[in-house]
């Protein structure tokens, strides 16, 4: 198993475990307090659990090498899983906001705020540890699934902090803050859903990668031999980056020399993008002496 696959799978397993622990803790806390802000946090953790499990299954499939039926591999499944995750996030946000308005209209009040405080602190500690590990994995693997999961959990840090503050202030009689905080969490979930879904949609649509294309131009320009390049096209499919371009070479170069220049540039690009598949078309050009 490659380092990418090993780290990515470890990250998804860790995400599932953390989500399960927090679901159990927050369910107990919600039953004990009746807090809708805690309900929002619980819904989010339940969403984390479902999406983390989907991500784990999707990642196992996405890591399968290219075959006769899928010549470019199975990496697009990462984007599909991320898009599904964003849809779940929007659905949870709608349920939470509607429930928050219901609580406001009924003028319900929460109890046992100390339980909510304890569970919120536990959630912050576990989530911070998970996000730290996920950032390490992302730096090594560039996995979209892990990145989408990490973005959500980074939002959870702020969410759990907000719930903690709400629990503390409710102890001073600010009961209305519980519903207001829950509505804020719903809005926050929608914003996160947009970021995750938008990135996944762009990848599914093979949107061009201007930053990568610029770096390819720069790498070619730094090498001795080529006269330039054109028609640089790049697309992302899960962890795999596909790069193709036309390399302009002196028409008088020997075939072996042109091939050596192409190999040298491909090696240089591989150093910058290890998980890439590169296709170079050699174009002869007339060079004025």
Q: What's the topology here?
A:
Elements: H1 3-33, H2 36-62, H3 76-106, H4 113-141, H5 144-170, H6 176-204, H7 210-222, E1 228-237, E2 240-250, H8 255-272, E3 276-285
Parallel strand pairs: 2-3
Antiparallel strand pairs: 1-2
Helix pairs in contact: 1-2, 1-4, 2-3, 2-5, 2-6, 3-5, 3-6, 4-5, 5-6
Descriptive account of the structure:
By secondary structure, the chain is mainly alpha-helical. 71% of the residues lie in helices and 11% in strands. It has helices at 3-33, 36-62, 76-106, 113-141, 144-170, 176-204, 210-222, 255-272, and strands at 228-237, 240-250, 276-285. Strands 1-2-3 form a 3-stranded mixed sheet. Helix 5 packs antiparallel against helix 6 (176-204). The radius of gyration is 25 Å and the shape is elongated.
Structural class by helix and strand composition: mainly alpha
The strand line-up of the biggest sheet is 1-2-3
Low-pLDDT ranges: none
Distance between the termini: 52 Å
Number of helices: 8
Describe the global form: elongated
Largest sheet: 3 strands, mixed
| Amount of beta strand | 5-15%
The level of helicity is: over 70%
For the residues shown, what is the average pLDDT?
Answer: 78
Order of helices and strands: HHHHHHHEEHE
Q: What is the CA-atom radius of gyration, in angstroms? A: 25 Å
Number of strands: 3
């Amino acid at each position: 198993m490659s380092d990418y696959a090993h780290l990515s799978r470890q990250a998804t397993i860790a995400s599932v475990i953390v989500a399960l622990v927090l679901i159990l803790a927050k369910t107990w806390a919600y039953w004990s307090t009746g807090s809708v802000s805690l309900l929002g946090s619980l819904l989010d953790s339940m969403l984390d659990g479902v999406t983390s499990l989907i991500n784990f299954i999707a990642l196992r499939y996405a890591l399968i090498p290219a075959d006769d039926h899928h010549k470019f591999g199975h990496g697009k499944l990462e984007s599909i899983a991320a898009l599904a995750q964003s849809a779940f996030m929007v659905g949870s946000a709608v349920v939470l906001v509607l429930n928050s308005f219901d609580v406001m209209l009924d003028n319900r009040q929460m109890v046992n705020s100390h339980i909510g405080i304890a569970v919120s602190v536990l959630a912050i500690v576990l989530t911070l540890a998970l996000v730290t590990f996920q950032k390490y994995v992302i730096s090594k693997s560039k996995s979209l699934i892990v990145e989408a999961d990490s973005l959500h959990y980074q939002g959870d840090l702020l969410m759990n902090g907000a719930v903690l503050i709400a629990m503390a202030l409710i102890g001073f009689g600010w009961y209305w803050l519980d519903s207001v905080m829950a509505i804020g969490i719903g809005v926050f979930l929608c914003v996160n859903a947009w970021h995750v879904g938008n990135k996944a949609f762009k990848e599914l649509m093979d949107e061009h990668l201007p930053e990568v294309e610029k770096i390819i131009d720069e790498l070619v320009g730094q090498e001795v031999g080529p006269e330039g390049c054109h028609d640089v096209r790049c697309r992302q499919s899960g962890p795999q980056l596909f790069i193709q371009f036309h390399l302009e070479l002196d028409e008088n170069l020997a075939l072996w020399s042109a091939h050596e220049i192409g190999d040298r540039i491909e090696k240089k690009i591989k150093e910058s993008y290890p998980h890439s598949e590169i296709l170079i078309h050699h174009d002869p050009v007339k060079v004025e002496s």
